[in-house]
Amino acid sequence: MFSFTIFMMKNFATLILLALFLFILQNGNRIEAFPDRIISSSSINQPYRTSYHFQPPKNWMNAPMYYKGVYHLFYQHNPYAATFGDRIVWAHSVSYDLINWIHLNNAIEPSEPFDINSCWSGSATILEGGEKPFILYTGIDENKHQVQNLAIPKNASDPFLREWIKLPQNPVMKPPIGVELNNFRDPSTAWLGNDGKWRVVVGAQNGDQGKVILYHSKDFVDWKVDSRPFFATDNTGVCECPDFFPVLIKGENGVDTSFDHQDPNFVRHVMKISYLSRLHDYYFLGNYNVFGDNENFVPDIKFTGTSSDLRYDYGKFYASKSFFDYAKNRRILWGWVNESDSTQDDIQKGWAGIQSIPRQIWLDKSGKRLVQWPIEEIEKLHDKQVSISKENLLSGSTLQVSGIIASQVDVEVVFEISEVESAEWLDPKGVDPQILCSKKEDGSRSGKIGPFGLLALASEDLREQTSVFFQIYKAPNRYVGLMCSDQSRSSLRDDLDKTTYGTFFDIDPTQKTISLRTLIDHSIVESFGDEGRICITSRVYPSLAIDKNAHLFVFNNGIQTMQISKLNAWSMKQAQIGYEGNISCV
Ligand SMILES: *[C@@H]1O[C@H](CO)[C@@H](O)[C@H](O)[C@H]1NC(C)=O
Ligand SMILES: *[C@@H]1O[C@H](CO)[C@@H](O)[C@H](O)[C@H]1NC(C)=O
Ligand SMILES: *[C@@H]1O[C@H](CO)[C@@H](O)[C@H](O)[C@H]1NC(C)=O
């Protein structure tokens, strides 16, 4: 039997976050100017607080939306401690640009029998042509069962939607037959079918099978369960935060979840699952089938439980959610990024958990994976720029990128790949890329092409460094790249989780370059490899490479000389994140 308490203890770090939900509503007037004197973190006593990644003022954090010109970030939050708790609320911050944020009062707090023991994740859906936002969230009820509830804005004319009311019909969904009472949560954004009915999926578990369950409704309040699972995976445990959305076959624009999904010539579908048993966000590309009343999602490739499964991010990234931003016709993804220090450290810092930079996502031309790229708004924070072009990096060399604030930087480097045929041989079958990455000893063991890449948050003497790098191999009938983020030397402190992350990806032999963009922000190193096809996010806590003592290098430890065809790095300004009308914050 599954015990709720054990579940909570084991997973306290993860439950929390479960969901970001972004929701976007559009148009409308800006009522107030952005408060111009909000201050965010002070780095004096808080060297690890980020400067341009969203983090809550204090306490245990983690989860975002857009309505009438305003983006909303609702996140799972424990108001009482920097650890998980039994009275989780929906905290709320708003923004005009997804970069600068104003903290508001909590949007939803436990208060009724159907959510008295916590308000966990959910999603927002905008009904009636972008006029009516609804939140569907998981309540932990008086019996500690998981149920789904609805909330609507108290005053839809309030541009910030500060107050939310819970509907008297709650709960609107209870665990159906074949679903464990305490494993039924995280409703997705809803979509409208061609038959005029709303659909929503909810994550669940039965035994060891993870399930995604489909519900239908005509009025958004009265929901009927579909008894056949919409999607299921064996040996995975509970499916948290299912996110289901269409992507265009051609082009980088996003589409609304309700977009006419029947036409396979225009769209494919993505199912993202956060598997609690693995603490990673996996996604599947596939077909959304509607045959009469038989509706399901069939992935192109089934879950294997191996390193070949597709993940949004091969580092720290969980409980992500996407939303369609119809202000800019794009789909945006956010993930929750965990700490790598101890709970004790979190209590001392007074906070834990941050959000990734919002990423625009679309289907790669190959049709085989998604591409992710930091939203263009972050370029507003670009400050001083330095550039390098056409510079050779000989075998074993390291080049410092000077003239920037290396603790707070956006850097993009493009390496030329010449003679890909000379790459060394490796059959990736059965090789765990993460283990291979950790054997690279910080990228110092040489291969023919690579390791080459960046040393982020490095001390001057390189005793501390987080190396993000590639190596290229010749595999049977193809070329593969290995991308790694190695934290083993990220800090002189030894009480940290320094797991090295890595993954394989296909290299197109006609491809002449390979790129790496990394967003460095005090304690986060968020990397987008091969133009965003591969992402790896790490959390690191250097003891020397702090603030002005942090350095950034490009390196090549491969035998072959690598050319930097171009490198651009920008010091980043601090985002304005604070309370409404309160300058003495955080
Ligand atoms: C609703 O919000 C609008 C805009 O802030 C405000 O003018 C109005 O007084 C509010 N209505 C109520 C009932 O609070
Ligand atoms: C949070 O971080 C800890 C320590 O690094 C790790 O063991 C745990 O799996 C992480 N949880 C998630 C959801 O990433
Ligand atoms: C400003 O924020 C601080 C810190 O949370 C709080 O103690 C103070 O009461 C706030 N002041 C106002 C005017 O809201």
UniProtKB/TrEMBL annotation:
Domain Glycosyl hydrolase family 32 C-terminal: 377-571
Top-rank taxon: Eukaryota
GO term, biological process aspect, one: carbohydrate metabolic process
This protein's UniProt keywords: Glycosidase, Hydrolase, Signal
Stored InterPro entries: ConA-like_dom_sf, Fructan_Metab_Enzymes, Glyco_hydro_32, Glyco_hydro_32_C, Glyco_hydro_32_N, Glyco_hydro_beta-prop_sf
Domain Glycosyl hydrolase family 32 N-terminal intervals: 53-374
SUPFAM superfamilies found in the cross-reference section: Arabinanase/levansucrase/invertase, Concanavalin A-like lectins/glucanases
Gene Ontology MF terms: hydrolase activity, hydrolyzing O-glycosyl compounds
Signal peptide (from-to): 1-33
Matches recorded under Pfam families: Glyco_hydro_32C, Glyco_hydro_32N
PANTHER family per the UniProt record, alphabetical: BETA-FRUCTOFURANOSIDASE, INSOLUBLE ISOENZYME CWINV1-RELATED
UniProt similarity note: Belongs to the glycosyl hydrolase 32 family.
Protein name per Swiss-Prot or TrEMBL: Beta-fructofuranosidase, insoluble isoenzyme
Organism field: Arachis hypogaea (Peanut)
